User: Fold these one by one.
Assistant:
Number 1:
Amino acid sequence: MNFVFRGKRISGLLAVVPANEGSFLEEMRNFDFPVNRSLKLKEVMGYDKHRLVLDGVCVSDLAVFGLRSLFDRGLLVPGDIDALILVTQSPDHLMPPTSSIVQGRLGLKQDMLCLDINQGCAGFIVGLLEAFLLLEQPAVRKVVLINADVMSRKTSPKDRNSFPLIGDAASITVIERDQNDSVIHANLKMDGTRHEALMIPAGGMRMPSSAATAALEDVGDRNLRAKDHLRMDGSAVFNFVQVEVPPMIESLLETAGVPIGDVEWFLFHQPNRFMLQKLADKMRIAHAKMPSNVVEQFGNSSGVTIPMVIATNLAGRARGARFCACLAGFGVGLTWGSMLLSLGEMNFCELIEYPNATGG
Amino acid sequence: MTALIALLQEIRPESDFGASRDFLGDGLLDSFDMISLVAALDTAYRISIDGVDIVPEHFSNLDAIAALLRKYGAAP
């Protein structure tokens, strides 16, 4: 499905990562696995450091910390927020919406919309689409999009397929109308028939959590995982990305009438270095134009990785003159989406640390 | 094939790759080893194996891997 928007822009972006850092070299002992094979994975996939919340820290803790930082420094006025969209797959509770918890903790006005979206690695694209749609309403002048996940709390530390790459983080993106009549093109596709490729089987109504779902099981390849944990079919996800993403980008650029050479930056979701470099090779994009350095520094934080790649690599550029960027996210659902827009002239673009504190 | 077997044994020294027709099914390689192998093949043969070709059937045995390399103009 193709989308076109006019006169909207990202005016600020803040990434929040826990100060607590895990190291793949130290965690290797958790995996019943020869050291040399783990070291090869480190080299190829880019596993190294990842940021992990301490016990009890929830999505709303990271979000409230980031928003308070913006309020305290006068970078965002609480009363200006007309809509709060929170995209997560690790909410504080099954109910109420975590966006309502954030609104309440910050004492934001009642005359606003709070909306949770259950999405993962394409969650930044989905959240931006929702924000742009809301800005079509005259009453909505400023939307805050929060992408946040604490998936380390739902990942088995003894699952070498998932734990080394997981990172916790939040991002706060401010979206508003643009004085320039800039055009934004986007596309989005979904395939629910493949929903089991990325899944937490237990914890919902279909399979409520119990002692049995919390028990670690041998799931092959010497990995131990419970049904309460994230399950990722790595081969299926890899193949999905390599098959679906290149034609999606090609279609986006064709619809927009923009040659691939005119795109300055390809800012994609950060699953791992290998997968991104294979995508870049397939699309004949220079690796330097598609940064793949987020996983090795911070881990894969699902829908937060596109804001992370911007804040990590382009903080200065994002506050300067505008440039043409292609964003893409792909993952749970399965969902894949992309967006062509101009970034720049942001009021803020930075990364801050959530201190080593427990949640609440 | 000798060079290819050497690359495989760098990843899994304990495996006898000449004795299996189904590396993944027989437990000689797992999906992450397959990724390590692709990275090693890309470097050794100066090719870039397309992501859509990184599927188990292309890595199930020595003949399958050799056929994949030939597709990219490399001599196994």
Number 2:
Amino acid sequence: MLRSLFKVLSLITGAAIGFVVSYSAVTVRVAAMSPVGLGLGKSSDPFFRTYTEMVRLGEAEAVIHSCANKANIASQQAMSRSESGVITELRTDAKSAGLTPPLDLVAAIVELRSSLRDPKLSGPDQERDIRNLVRQSGWPDDSEAAFKMVLTRLDGACQ
Amino acid sequence: MTSINAGGSKNRRSNRRLIIWILAGLAVGIAGGTVRASQTATRNSKSLSQWVAISEYENLALLEYKHADPIQGKQSLQDLLHFMDSAEARGLIGDKHTLEFDRTLTYVRIAFLDEKSGKAESVHEDMIAAVEHSRKLGKENVSEETLRRDVAGLDSYIP
């Protein structure tokens, strides 16, 4: 009787340890490979790279819009730099994947944010760049004010 | 002396049996943990990535839909559909319900833009596609009018 009890206890202990170890290992692996996790999964498929970069862009936007981060200028600047890098990568990968996301519009948003954050960066050159990017996105010629209003609304409400 | 040896050998045999039971339990636990984690962690990771990637793409496409000229707006929405289709074809989707919901909204918005451009035949086709995707959400009796009203309501939140 006692021997059978030991056998069952050994089986259960082994199963519990095995379950916890393998569950943790698979979860860590999934988190490491996932685009929303560490994004270590490298792929030769341009669509998969575009998908991963779109996740990174979304995460950067979420950080910029978070209430806790609004006053942290250094973090906002770091996120803008990260977005600029992602946009550059997206331009190549999205084209290879046969996609045309409105990247000029995101680039204009990043530039306008930078100039609003640091007035030293704003000037006629940057204003012209922003105007051109917005126009290339199919917005009307006189949409500068509308674009600024959109950004104010986008960034105004924190999440 | 003989009885002590016999007792020791019996104990060793008993310990070996317990180790075998523990190893058997480990094997079962590892298999169970791997299967369970693959189901839950992979699905959750896919859903999270899907929400971030498609939301970001959608946010940009919606800005184009609202502010750019109808041709560029329609192109952005069609590109968004292409992005969703490609993600689904590659098995990157964890939440099919949300995907069908996004597709329904996108077809209705394309119909709105076609309406603006005076393409009555395209409007009809877009709305058929919207209703079809809406049915996949379990809404069997949804009408074109309901979809139009719901999407018009949602569109008022686009910055």
